[in-house]
Amino acid sequence: MDEKLRELADRLGIATTYTDSGLKAACHEVSDETIRFFADVLGYKAGNNEEIARSLRRLENSRWQTVLEPVYVILQSRKVFELVAQESQVDDAFALSLSNRQTGEKSEVSFVVVVQAESRTVARKVYRKLEIEITSEVAIGYYDAELKIGEKTYQTLLAIAPEKCWQPDDWDKTRLWGYSVQLYSLRSRRNWGIGDFTDLCRFVEICKTSGADIIGLNPVNVLGHCFPEEASPYSSVSRLFLNPIYIDVESVPEFCPEDRCPAEAEIADLNALEMVDYGRVYPLKMKILQTLYKRMQNVPERMKAFERFCRSKGADLDNLATFQALYEDKWQDHWGGWRAWEKEYRQPNTAAVKKYQKEQADRLGFFKFLQFEAARQLQKVTDCVREAGLKIGIYRDLPVGVGRDSAEVWGDEALYLRESGAGAPPDAFFPSGQKWNLGAFNPFELKARAYMPFIKIIRSAAQGAGALRLDHVMSLMRLFVIPEANGKQGTYIMYNFEDMLGIVALESHLNRCMIVGESIGNVPEGFVDRLFDKNIMSMSVLWSERWQAGWGDFKSPYQYPENVVTSIGTHDMPPLKMWWFGYDIALSRKLGIIGSDQEMCDNYHKREADRWKLLKVLDENQVWPEDNRRHGNYLYGEGYPEGLEEAVHRFMAKSRAKIFLVQPEDIFQVEKLQNLPGTDRDKHPNWRLKMPVNLEDMENTLAYYRNMIAIKKER
Questions:
Q1: What is the 8-class DSSP label of residue 555?
Q2: pLDDT category of residue 678 using cuts at 50, 70 and 90
């Protein structure tokens, strides 16, 4: 690679090499073609040596010709930021005032100016770098800063962040447990074939009775209105808004009992299914909700609340509603998503779109109503958590990206890396890597907008939550991005890691919300330690807490890390009983994920050894039920060990981990996967498996009772 191209890549934060997380940890050289492609995506030409030289000069000079950057994320303990001034301005009078965005309060602050030695001549003008250190006490928060140098005035945003993320009082002495649930999977006699916010309120009551203090949820962001069967919660159309499928229709104030009558038989049928039938549940709910929206328009108090909600959400809600209405109009005639629409509809601020919004105001109002009611019902869940006294409450999940065919990208395409999408490099499970096709922020554009799009997304998920899981938390530092064109090589794009950490810590405190980072995958060396420094908890699962990189013995509970949220597995892993029998191995062979019978046989042999190792560590830690000790070695064909899930739950509850999450699928011995990564619904029914037990019956089952006893022995 040409040295100047490498220099440009380094300056732009484009990785020229990377090491994957496969079994052999191969190092990859990134091609010149990929570097040039992403340089152009970031706004810097690199087609030839002349363009590279111009791009380097532009990068170098742009900072020197800008007095203040658009945003500074600085620590409350050291409130220092850098600026550039012409040498003729250095001896002028300086004044600095701050206006708090949360309170509106404006104040002058004390500061000192330190002139740096570094200078540069650009276009025959000499520029100097200076540092300003604020010496006044300033609370954490966002401040519009106004800096006067002589007669000239400059503006920036100061995000004054705490050193670490928020944690509850006496956290050092705390060891909690709770549940990890997929909201859609909650089964009840009253719901309409899918778990909803009322079911979640009922689950909060179950937690109160059992002593659980946290409920981990799948992402509940809005998905595609026209394709409800595309149900992956990690590919939303907006991370700012909620999935209306979780609305309990019967809890909408305008609902009347007779509204249910025409749909009674279908509701009963949907409720009885083992899997969520999104293609029937979603249209059924939308049909009734449209009737309720029309009724609401005749209720003045509700309309006032609705209008306040719409004003508070502003352009973001307008964009979502417009996108959904346009998509409904165009999807049958325009294959390829919004990029296939007529040019005048491919962005939200055109005259054609403004005209459409006026003509379709009532339809857009319906989509806004869905968000209004979903937000109201989720707030009710938050109220239930407070009344129940759960120490953490709802633990929400924020996806790493957003669907490229989404309202977020349509509404602001310039904010995202064009012609490319987020994915993952090769690893042990996906030797060819993964192409998620998720929209990824352009780091330069994100900073130019003072990180406000990122702040809004974090804040939207954190409000009302006691904890927030950041999916693929490594994206705060770097994200693997792949060109859309087939056969094109991907690479890592770097983000302003310290700025992103500071914003996460600030939003954590402003919303009193703990932060957890999902760090499974290709994790940079020292990355998890940096998270711990910021009070960002990591994640841990039974299957990874082993010696010899997952091949050796299971670690004992006292050997678990402390600052983690631990669980037996995740939604992407087989539940305990499925793992025990190796049904996941058979499934992977059937779908071609395991490529040969020999490989399948090797997997079975390893699983048998792993089962022995699990039994061994359970024996050593004396966690088997007192009235149901281990009876044998449970070779294949000998059946499922009685009391195994109780022993494993007690084992995990015994660990040093601050938080232990129980998956109800393990309590009730589910033998199927919620999600099989790398497959779509044509191969595996992802994101739709229901719990085998109704919420109304859960506490009365023997399995639930015995597992609660096991957990409470240790927590």
A1: P
A2: confident
